[in-house]
Amino acid sequence: RQHEKIRNFACIAHVDHGKSTLCDRMLEMTGTIPPAAISRDQPEQEAKNEQVLDTLKVERERGITVRAQSATMFHRHTDGQEYMLNLIDTPGHVDFASEVLRSLLASQGVILLVDAAQGVQAQTLTVLDEALKRNLTVVGAVNKWDLVKDDGRGEAVLNELSDLLACDPGEILRISAKTGWGVESVLDAVVERIPPPPPAPPATATTDKEPFRGLVFDSWYDSFRGVVSLVSVFEGEVKKGDSITSSITGNDYTVLDLGILSPREVSIAEHPDANSRALRKGMAGWVVCGMKNPKDAFLGDTFHLTSRPTPPLESFKPLKSMVFAGIYPLDPGGFTKLEEAIRRLTLTDRSVTSNRESSTFLGQGFRLGFNGSLHMDVFRQRLEDEFGEEVIVTRPLVPVKLTFKDGTERTIDNPADFPDPGGLLKVVRVQEPMIRATIVAPDEYTGAIINLCTSHRGVPLSHTYLSSSAATSSSTASSTALKPRVTMLYSLPLSSIITSFHSALKSISSGFASFDYEEAPYEDSDLCRMNILVNGQKVDALCTVAHRSEVQKEGREWAKRLREVIPRQQHEVVIQAAVGSTILARERIAPFRKDVTAGLYGGHYERKMKHLAKQKAGKARLKERSIGRITIPTEAFHAVLGGQ
Ligand code: GTP
Question: Which residues are recorded as binding GTP (predicted)?
Answer without folding.
Answer: 13-20, 89-93
